[in-house]
Structure formats: C-alpha cells, structure tokens
C-alpha cells in the first residue's frame, strides 16, 4: 500500500549485485511490525466489543440487550451506531491520514513517516487502555487510525526499496503476513483477557497493542532510510553510503546511477493524478478500484472485525466465540503463507477464480444453516451445526487469504505504469480504507436487518467479482512490469480498445527521453 516515491527494477531482468545481508533482514522484520500493529487493531476490536465489562462501561444499551436477548433478538443485540463507530473510526482516520502520509513519505522519508506512525500508535494505545468515557475511547481509535494511515503508506514502500530484487516479492508479502499474525495475536489475547475477573480485561487487550507500537517506533529509530528516499531528497552521498551498506558490496555504482536516473524521471511527472484519468490508463484504474471495493464486499473484514460478536450472535457462549475467532485467525495466517508460494506458480486469475467458488459455496451453506437453525430468540446452535459453521467460515477465510487479500494489493502495484504509479497507489489505499470504513460502520446494522441473509448478500458480491475476474482481469504472472502494455493490455479482448492513443504516448515519451539523452528501457517504480 505504498505512497509517492519510486524504486528501481533492472532492465531486461538483469539483477544488480546484492547480498542478503543481516541488516536487510533485521530492517525488514522491524519495519514489518507496522503490519503487526494494523492486524492487532483489526483483531482486538471484535473481542473487546463482545466483553460484558467493556459493554457495561461504554455501551450500556448493548449490554442490556446481550443480557436479555428477548429485548431485540439474537441478530440485533449488537446493532448500535456507537459500537460500530468504535471499530470504524480507525479506518476513517486512516483514510484522512493517507493524504498527509503521501506527502511525508515523499518529503521527509520513509523512516520518519514510520516514526510518526509509531508516535500515533503509542498515544492512541495509552488513551484506549486508560479510557474513562466513550469520547476518550473514540479519540484513541482515531489516533490509532492515523498511525495505520502513515504505516500503511511507508512500510510496504520501505520494504520494496530495501530488499534485493530477488526477494522483494516475498518481503512485500511479509507485511500482509504480519497483518494476519497481528489478528491472530489479538484473538489469543482476547481469549485470555476475557477470563479476567474484576472488569479490567478489556484494558489489557487494548493496552497490549503497545508492544507492536513500541517495536515499530524503536525499529524506526534504529533503521536507516532507504537509498531511494535519500536520493529522491537530494542526499546523494548518504544514499550511496546506505546502498553500499545494505547490499554488502562495493559494486553498487550501476544500481546507484539507475536510482539517480529513476529519481530524475519521477520528478518530471508533474500531474500524476491527471495522467491517471487518461483513456490509456483507464483499465488499470478500473481494475485497481474494483479490486478494493470487491475485497471489502467479500465480507472478510466484517468477519475479522466482529468474529467474536458474530459467533456470539449465532448462539456460541462467550468463551466458545473467542476460541472460534482464534481458529479463524490461525487459518488466515496459514493461508497467507500459501499465497506466498503459489502466486507466481499458478497465477493470479486461477487463485481469484478458485477462491470465488470456495467463498460462494461456503457463504451460501452458512446462510442455509442459519436460516433454519438460528432464529431471533433461539437459545443455542446445535453443537454439530456450530462446528460446521466454524469450518465453513474457516473455508471462506482461507480462500480469501490466498487470493483477494494479498492480490487486491499485488495486482494494482504491478499494473500501473511509471507516470501514474504513486497516484494509482494512493487511490488504491484511499478506496480500500473508505470501503473498510463503510463495512465496519454498517455490518452490525446489516446483520440485524438481513439476519442470515447477510451471508447471501456477500455471496452475491462474490459471484459478481468472480464474473468480473473471469472476463476483465488479465493474467500478469511472470510478465515484466515494463512490458504490461504490449503483452497484457494490447492483447486483452476488452481493454485493448483503450490502448489506441498509446502510440502517441510512446512517441511523446521517446521525445522526452531523447531530449534528456536517455532511452528509458525500464520501469523505475516497480515494487516487485
């Protein structure tokens, strides 16, 4: 989810000399804790909002409904705009912070942006853990959201720039993997703190977010900024020294010169957002925006935010609901690891289409079970059916985690051309956070009104996105980024009609290159 900036890819697939040095591994692990923080924030809210002590203090109306289901029925007991705002405010703040983070990432550097994110995280955690009223709680969540906005811009970009080319893809998915580990960690913490008597378990759940927050802050203090960032800001000697240090060799002159040239070309792009709207860039823009909307309308975040609440609604006891959330969190982590190994072997389209079938079937079966077995005032879901629902939700989560989860970010990052790369990624991040906010704010109300139909609603969207994938998303596996136009867009049955004016653009770019005495044969903003 990177912001403005650039990173280099070598011409014709030639790799620069680079060792996988200890400093690169340590730097990437520390930076990726930004993903851990984001995942923890996603996972912790659902568990905390199902804790009676937390509800009694901040949401007494919801607390009374959970104590007496006869008031509003199973499906509506958590329907409360304030409760949803507690979860969704983080994503609205993240959306706003994204625009500021784009500026700081470019002007102040990746390292300082990660430090700002760490500061927001720490202050937000303190306010949340010490909250005395709803206002203090929401302000804490908003500050955490600001941290998410800054971290999600800087960390993936930093990782792609520090890593040697041959392990860049794997290290980029390290951020996504850390998000899933953060969710699992939050679910385990909630499972433990729910057993604490005395009414302060929820404070510990929210306060333990301080661990990844401190790791990110300390990491940002200790790591060096990326050579790309230093060169972009005119600090050439410092950038060269850092490049020599992280590559573990003195033979860095070719890569250094290419980074300098990439910086010069990136600065020539005066109006990236205007370029983004040109006809020839429409396929990439449509696909990037559609992927973010579809990613949220799979229903995944609804399940991840509110897993314990959802399982409670279905008649699980509080203990069982938290335990089930831990299981889904573990499946999420393992399935993300699967995507690291399979994405470059079987391809993007195969993963998306297979996952579409798997998610659709599991959601429809869940809806059928709930339609017959969970009524508004039924006391319990039969044990056999309860286990089947957990298995089906795990089936759904696993399909998402090896497809729409990582690929929703990967495909936009490898399809936007140089002149619109930073603008395209900013739009991608913004659309994602906007629809994450919409789902987080609306889900519990939708659950109340749709009841079991909520799963049919999301399965309908899964069907639509699978049809979209089948006809409109091209395969980008093993295709160099600089060859996307020729080998992908101009060959696609539908998108090729938008490439009419590409020759004009190529001539213009050729003239610019000649004027500057440089033939641009590579894409200096590739992330993978």
TrEMBL record:
One of its GO terms (cellular component) is membrane. It is found in: Membrane. The chain crosses the membrane at residues 20-40, 82-100, 112-131, 137-159, 171-192, 204-224, 285-309, 321-343, 350-372, 384-405, 426-446, 452-473. It is a multi-pass membrane protein. The keyword Nucleotide-binding does not apply. Belongs to the major facilitator superfamily. Sugar transporter (TC 2.A.1.1) family. This is Major facilitator superfamily (MFS) profile domain-containing protein. It comes from Gossypium harknessii.
């Amino acid at each position: 989810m990177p912001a403005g900036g650039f990173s280099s890819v070598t011409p014709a697939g030639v790799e620069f000399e680079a060792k996988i040095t200890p400093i690169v591994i340590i730097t990437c692990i520390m930076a990726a804790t930004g993903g851990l923080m984001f995942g923890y924030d996603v996972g912790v809210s659902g568990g905390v909002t199902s804790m009676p002590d937390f509800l009694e203090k901040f949401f007494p109306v919801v607390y009374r409904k959970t104590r007496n289901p006869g008031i509003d029925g199973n499906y509506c007991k958590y329907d409360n705009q304030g409760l949803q705002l507690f979860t969704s405010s983080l994503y609205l703040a993240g959306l706003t912070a994204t625009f500021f983070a784009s500026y700081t990432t470019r002007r102040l550097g990746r390292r300082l942006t990660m430090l700002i994110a760490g500061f927001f995280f720490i202050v937000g955690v303190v306010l949340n853990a010490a909250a005395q009223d709803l206002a203090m709680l929401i302000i804490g969540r908003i500050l955490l959201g600001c941290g998410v906005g800054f971290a999600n811009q800087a960390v993936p970009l930093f990782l792609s720039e520090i890593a040697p080319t041959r392990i860049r893809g794997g290290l980029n998915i390290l951020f996504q993997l850390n998000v899933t580990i953060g969710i699992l960690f939050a679910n385990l913490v909630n499972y433990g703190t729910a057993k604490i008597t005395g009414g302060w378990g929820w404070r510990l759940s929210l306060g333990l977010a301080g661990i990844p927050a401190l790791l990110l802050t300390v990491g940002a203090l200790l790591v060096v900024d990326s050579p790309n960032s230093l060169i972009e800001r005119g600090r050439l000697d410092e950038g060269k020294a850092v490049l020599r240090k992280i590559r573990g060799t003195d033979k860095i002159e070719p890569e250094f010169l290419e980074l300098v040239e990439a910086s010069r070309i990136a600065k020539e792009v005066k109006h990236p957002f205007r370029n983004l709207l040109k006809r020839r860039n429409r396929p990439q823009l449509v696909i990037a925006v559609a992927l973010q909307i579809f990613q949220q309308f799979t229903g995944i975040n609804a399940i991840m935010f509110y897993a314990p609440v959802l399982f409670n609604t279905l008649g699980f006891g509080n203990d069982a609901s938290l335990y089930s959330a831990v299981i889904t969190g573990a499946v999420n982590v393992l399935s993300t690891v699967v995507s690291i190994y399979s994405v470059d072997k079987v391809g993007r389209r195969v993963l998306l289409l297979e996952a579409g079938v798997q998610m659709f079937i599991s959601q429809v079966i869940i809806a059928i079970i709930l339609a017959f077995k969970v009524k508004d005032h039924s006391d319990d879901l039969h044990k056999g059916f309860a286990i089947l629902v957990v298995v089906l939700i795990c089936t759904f989560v696993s399909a998402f985690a090896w497809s729409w989860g990582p690929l929703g970010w990967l495909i936009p990052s490898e399809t936007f051309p140089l002149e619109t790369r930073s603008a395209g990624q900013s739009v991608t991040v913004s659309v994602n956070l906007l629809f994450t906010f919409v789902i987080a704010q609306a889900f519990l109300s939708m659950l109340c009104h749709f009841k079991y139909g909520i799963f049919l609603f999301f399965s309908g969207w899964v069907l639509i996105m699978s049809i979209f994938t089948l006809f409109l998303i091209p395969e980008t596996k093993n295709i160099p980024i600089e060859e996307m136009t020729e080998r992908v867009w101009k060959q696609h049955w539908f998108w090729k009609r938008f490439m009419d004016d590409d020759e004009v653009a190529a001539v213009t770019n050729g003239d610019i290159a000649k004027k500057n005495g440089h033939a641009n044969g590579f894409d200096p903003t590739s992330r993978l």
